[in-house]
Amino acid sequence: MTTLTLTDAAGTPVNRSYLLVQSTPDLSIWKDYVTNSGYPNGAGVASLSLKENSNGTMRLTGKLVLPTLETVAGDTGLGFTPAPTKAYECLGSFDLVFPARSSLQNRKDLKAMTIDLMSDAVVTAATETFVHPS
Predict the structure, then answer these.
(1) How many whole angstroms separate alpha carbon 43 and alpha carbon 37?
(2) Count: domains in the chain
C-alpha cells in the first residue's frame, strides 16, 4: 500500500499521511484519518485517476478534499460529547490531458508549469485574500 504525504501551510508545516483505501487500475483514493481527531467524516481525501479514451488521449485527474468539522462544546446531558459534524470542505482539483502524440517532454512541461502556476503570486493572492487576478 502506498501512503501519500502532503504538507500543509501551517506556520510550522505539518506532514499529513494519506493511507491508500481504494485502488483500481483507473482510480486510487487515499484518506487522512488522523487530522480532525480521527473522525471519519473529518478525513481528508485525495484521489488520482488516469484514463485513456478511444483515440489514445490520456487524462490525469486529481482531487483533494479538506473537511472542517463543527466545534462541539459540552455534552448532551447524557454524559457524553457527540461526535462533531462536517461544517464545510475546501476542494482542489486538476486535469492534465495528454494527446496520444504528446512527447515525454510535453507531459513533463505541463506538469511542471501547472505546479508553477499554482505557486505564482497571482494564485497566492487570489487564494489568501480573494484578490481577483488581473
Answers:
(1) 9
(2) 2
